[in-house]
User: What shape does this take?
Amino acid sequence: MGVSVEAAVRLGRGEPLVLLHDLGLTWHSWGRCVEALARRYEVWAPTLPGHWGGPAFVGAVTPTTMADLVEGQLDEAGLTRVHLAGNGFGAWIAAELADRGRAESLSLIAPLGLWRDDPVTSESVRTELSRRASVSSFLAHVRHPVLGPITRRAAMRTLTGRSAPALLELCAATDHRASITAEAPSHCAILGEMVRSREFALGWYPRIDASSAITVLTGEWDNLVHRPARELVPDGIVRAHHVLEHGHVPMLDDPDTITAHIHTRISGPYVRLR
Assistant: This one.
């Protein structure tokens, strides 16, 4: 393909901050947030196991196994408790790690899986996620000098739910990472099996009782998470809700705003959850 896809990026110095991407994507979906956050923190953004450029997935393809594998990576890196930020499925994994006592703070960006007792939403999201692979597979074959960029932007709108001019400007400014993000689902070895797993279909419910401070961010133009943050996570768990004018991958829409929210959560008052 001629596209270099690194397995992870680690930049900066300071308190450790781990960024976890959404299902089917790669760390590149964090866009310019990586460099911006690395000005204050030691940022580690890995590509999840079973994803394009990431390590192999070992074990039953379920969210719990994914959390086990990522926790193993934290152990190998000598990281006990870290600041965690996750987008989509990455937010689900980050919450699971927080429940295991691995989080100093937690930022959940358009979290997936919060559909307990809501099978209609579960089915809708799983269907939409399955579309990612087919859209990306088509995109990977479009190399026309004119049609290629146009198709890539259309695919980005499909993947992120964003349709504003800002995303079109983004694609021109961060072409490499945007291209990888748009094509990544077609290279994900576990996407289909993960969304078909019973555990994924059932979802999860916030049960985090570790000493963490939590922010939940959702976007008004998200084509996967349609409910606002305050309806997804109870006030007894979360300490800050924000609804943004963004899609499902707001790190690409507006890296400066997402960076600011993550920094605010990390540097804000330390709050013990109930």
Observations:
- Residues 128 and 228 are 19 Å apart (CA to CA).
- The radius of gyration is 17 Å.
- The domain at 8-267 is CATH 3.40.50.1820 (Rossmann fold).
- The chain has one domain: 8-267.
